[in-house]
Design goal:
Shape: elongated
Number of strands: 0
Helix content: over 70%
Oligomer: single chain
Radius of gyration: 30 Å
Strand content: under 5%
Structural class: mainly alpha
């Protein structure tokens, strides 16, 4: 009840902060994924890029209670309360009721745990599943039945489907089964039964990847690129930075394209993952000393008191939330007391205690193979809290019975605390810039360009060469109509980061805006050499070619078809190209392109880079707007050529996909009148006047003469 009240207060305070709906990349991906599953795309489109369990759980919540950040965060609250209960039971069964009670209280108020519960990330759910996995293993220790072993395998499998690193824990459990069993036949039988439980959770995911994408990926294809993020020539151990031109803002499409060019063939997501894993192993083999030093640094980060996030400066957020800002619990304190609890558990504990300690020791070794973020150590915090509770109780007991040993124990605690608290290794320079960039991007997506400028300038001040800081400043100025300033910052970006395709795309846009189509074509083609799939770049190239005025209709049609092919029939490009041809009077080509846009499929969600963004272009609502535009224009073209019944059909479909499309209503009214359906036209008109009373186009209708002879 205490934990519940604390979390309700936290959410009440959180909702008033600007950061409430400023999600970061992973959060947006989970939110959008759960949303499309809830809308019926249950099977998906290609190999899972991320493990799906959290998205399934979030989808269930959205289906029951509606899609909202409140729904997602209340789900986090429920998961958090369940995790606190597990901490109590783990502490009680491994040590004592008093240990479990203290551990549950500390768990309830630990800042990092409280924060991550509400951030639409999988880590709190993964933490709960690991706790349940350990409890189910202990249950088998008490009563060694096949049923309990299957349950242990099933829960561990679900943890793996939430985060595949749990597969290492599954292997450890199998090793424990071998140690705790006397004969080889029994060992194999028990391992097989545990494997059955694992397969019940993992098997359907593997089969789904195989059937949907013909890609034999066990769970998800993210592992290869994550391994490379943590093991390459520019890796710093705490960020997702890749070698240029990828940097921090790399996209799945980019890493896939690089892998395919290197392989000379089209690759499935699992093959792309294998390519990047091989690149990481190559770097490790070529730089063993540097790789080992980086691995130790990542292990140190795991034990350090500093809270680190890839996309948000946690110290700034914690400072804005009183329940976190004034909270005395820190990782260093837990680590100090936990070291005493660890020794107590090793030397006086039982099999339960030792398996708990084994999980704590193994997990950091696995995580350090990749890269560190505070949320990656979240799953061990409940177990560390239990050991720290043991350490605190041990210290109190020693001071009551043996003051000398109590002083020695306090020295151990203070030494471990100091090791964690004081930064033995500094953070890489410039890392806070990413937080300001993320916040600036949020305000940019909200069309608040002046607010966004402030954050982008701050990021640039922290790191003058930070990739895309100048680019985003220029984009803000471009949206504000200050073209000269936009051009200046785009040129600054090109000088600082010449291998970034977005720089050339934006320069092409500037030249096109300033009436220099030839220069725009040159910059657009330069950008396409780096990112031929980019929709915006292809749009600008087509507009610049058309603006030259010297290109023949056949040549422009050829360029359009090439652009459509490069972007995999992207609906935005098709509609833009169709509108371009319509403006040039080529109605036949325009109609063909609008028809193609109606049959354009969105890219597979699992590998859609836009799903990590706030304004995801392929969100069903935005795609419906594009489909409505295509139907509207097809209806317009049909009406202009005297085909009124197809015009009626297309405008009705436009309204079905975008109920606020006023122009489609007006064309539908006109088309109905032209075929003599005056009553239906008047009925639609009354609806339009009621729904859109302030629309200037609707007001004009009242000033037009109404005729009943079939002509307008």
């Amino acid at each position: 009840f205490f934990a519940l009240i604390l979390r309700v207060i936290y959410l009440w305070l959180y909702q008033d902060l600007p950061l409430w709906d400023q999600l970061t990349v992973d959060n947006y991906y989970h939110h959008h994924w759960a949303e499309i599953i809830a809308r019926g795309n249950i099977i998906g489109d290609t190999t899972y890029f991320r493990a799906p369990f959290y998205a399934w759980l979030l989808c269930l919540a959205y289906s029951l209670f509606g899609v909202s950040l409140w729904t997602a965060r209340i789900l986090g609250l429920v998961v958090g309360l369940a995790s606190i209960a597990c901490t109590y039971y783990l502490g009680r069964r491994a040590f004592s009721h008093k240990t479990g009670t203290i551990a549950a209280i500390v768990h309830a108020i630990t800042p990092a745990i409280l924060y991550f519960e509400f951030e639409l990330l999988l880590d709190s759910t993964f933490t709960l599943l690991l706790q349940l996995s350990l409890l189910s293993l202990w249950s088998w220790f008490d009563n060694r039945t096949f049923g309990k072993l299957i349950v242990a395998g099933l829960i561990t499998g679900l943890a793996s489907v939430c985060r595949p690193t749990a597969l290492v824990w599954a292997a450890v459990i199998i090793l424990i089964l071998f140690i705790k069993t006397e004969t080889w036949s029994s060992r194999i039988k028990r391992a097989a039964i545990f494997g059955v439980g694992l397969s019940l959770a993992i098997g359907p995911v593997f089969l789904r990847n195989l059937i949907v994408a013909s890609d034999p990926v066990l769970i998800a294809s993210q592992g290869g690129i994550n391994f490379y993020i943590g093991n390459n020539e520019v890796a710093d151990g705490i960020s997702s930075r890749l070698p240029e031109p990828l940097g921090l803002n790399w996209r799945m499409r980019q890493v896939s394209n690089i892998a395919e060019k290197a392989s000379g063939a089209s690759l499935k997501p699992g093959e792309v993952s294998a390519y990047w894993a091989d690149r990481a192993f190559e770097w490790i083999a070529a730089n063993p000393g540097q790789a080992f030093s980086l691995y130790l640094e990542k292990l140190y980060r795991f034990l350090s008191d500093r809270e680190i996030s890839n996309n948000r400066e946690l110290s700034r957020f914690f400072g804005s939330m009183p329940l976190l800002k004034y909270n005395p619990i820190s990782f260093a304190i837990m680590f100090g007391f936990g070291m005493v609890g660890l020794f107590v558990g090793l030397f006086t504990g039982n099999i339960r205690t030792r398996t708990l300690i084994l999980l704590i020791l193994i997990y950091p070794l696995v995580v350090a193979l990749f890269f560190f973020s505070s949320r990656f150590r979240l799953p061990v915090l409940p177990f560390l809290i239990i050991l720290s509770s043991v350490g605190a109780l041990t210290l109190l007991d020693l001071f009551a019975t043996d003051i000398k040993k109590g002083v020695y124990t306090l020295g151990v605690i203070l030494g471990a605390w100091a090791f964690s608290y004081f930064p033995l290794i500094g953070l890489p320079s410039g890392s806070p810039a990413q937080d300001y960039m993320s916040r600036g991007i949020y305000y940019f997506s909200e069309n608040n360009y002046r607010e966004a400028l402030g954050y982008f300038y701050t990021a640039r001040m922290l790191d003058p060469l930070y990739p895309e800081a100048n680019l985003n400043i220029g984009a803000c100025y471009l949206r504000l109509g200050v073209v000269d300033s936009a051009r200046y910052y785009f040129e600054q970006e090109r000088a600082a980061n010449p291998n970034r395709y977005k720089t050339y795309t934006n320069l092409a846009s500037i030249h096109l805006l300033q009436g220099e189509p030839e220069e725009a074509v040159g910059y657009a083609r330069k950008a396409l050499e780096m990112a031929e799939w980019d929709v915006t770049t292809n749009m600008i190239l087509l507009r610049a070619l058309a603006a030259q005025g010297t290109i023949s209709p056949d040549s422009l049609s050829f360029e359009i078809n090439r652009a459509v092919s490069r972007t995999s029939n992207d609906i935005y490009l098709l509609n833009d190209a169709a509108s371009l041809m319509l403006s040039r009077g080529d109605t036949a080509m325009a109609e063909t392109l609008f028809q193609r846009s109606l049959h354009s499929d969105p890219p597979p969600f699992e590998t859609d880079d836009g799903a990590f963004d706030r304004n995801w272009a392929n969100h069903y609502s935005r795609r419906n707007t594009q489909i409505a535009q295509a139907h509207y224009h097809l209806g317009l073209l049909a009406g202009l050529s005297g085909r009124y019944h197809p015009a009626i059909s297309h405008n009705r479909k436009a309204i079905e996909h975008d109920s606020g499309f006023v122009e489609a209503y007006l064309n539908l009214i006109n088309a109905n009148r032209l075929v003599g359906k005056f009553e239906e036209a008047d009925s639609i008109l009354s609806i339009v006047k009621r729904r859109f009373p302030d629309n200037p186009l609707v007001r004009q209708l009242d000033r037009l003469p109404q005729q009943k002879n079939g002509t307008e």
